[in-house]
Amino acid sequence: MTKSDINKIGDLIKITARKCSDKVQPKIKVGQLFKILGIRNLKSGATGLSVQLSGTKRKYKINSDSFSWVITTIGEIQKETFKVMMENDEKRLNMVLSPDEKGMMAVTPLIIYQLAWEYAMDVVRMCADNKISLLRNTTREIRKLRDEYYYFVKHDLDFAHQQRVIDKTIELQKTFNCDLTLMYYTISNIWLKYHPDWPYTQIRVTAIMVQIIISICDVHNHYMDILLKKKLGGYRQSKRIPIMEKLSKLMDAIHGESNKMRFKDYNLDNAIRVVSKKILSIEYTFNEVQ
Fold it and tell me: Are 103 and 64 contained in the same domain?
């Protein structure tokens, strides 16, 4: 297959190498992007292109004897640009953030989410123990989602580091057991006030716990956004990762409460505030999961 078979009019190409002297067509540089306007086969067997420099009206004629190029797309260019931006941001972050701050940004969300998963799997086990057939599909979705979450995390942490996050989460549960238990019973009291006759209170209340813990991570990420604004001068608005958003919605199906305003309660707000403050006050450096 020749180059003329591969290239098409309208394609976007990126110059990857110069084969001729720098004095030949000096305005054409490696890395530049061009749109193909025309294609021709030269007597030498090379492919000749009529091209327009991207973002300008300047037009040139190039050939495969003088230059090498690859076909690219806007999507690939955006991906490459984003990668460079991320690498530059990472260098800046390493310069301006302390080890503790980097730990708060990278490690603390993983531990909070792992805590949510611990309670979510308690929900799955209780549903299985009580043989609730109506929730079989929902609990199956939760298990599937958990596998997706660990696959997602695996891109940044190997198995040993994932296990370390789990160990730190279990340690956190033991350290703040009284505060988490108080929050659980506060939710339970509100639930029994409105739904005294609904079965499986423990399962439903635990499902609400999962949602509250996920929301604590939202609060933490907001604080990290403010920190980045102070350190870097820019501002980002963090969004809950889609997997955790799906988990929260599955918890809706578990507890079945449609009126969330019932849980706008002073005692519960205070319990959540205590748990949030204690979780977010812990400083996890990168060394904590190594």
Answer: no
- Per-residue pLDDT tens over the stretch 51-104: 998 878 899 999 999 999 988 876 676 566 545 545 555 666 666 666 666 667
Distance of CA 237 to the CA centre of its chain: 13
Threshold 0.85, pTM exceeds: no
Name the percent of the chain lying above pLDDT 90: 40
> How many domains are there within the chain?
2
Give the pLDDT score at 32: 87
Q: Which residues of 237-259 are buried (b: 16+ CB within 10 A; e: fewer)?
A: eeebbebbebbbebbeebbebee
Flag residues of the chain having pLDDT under 50.
Answer: 1-5, 82, 85, 285-290
| pLDDT tens for each residue of 4-14 | 446 788 888 98
Q: What is the CATH number of the domain that holds 64?
A: 2.30.30
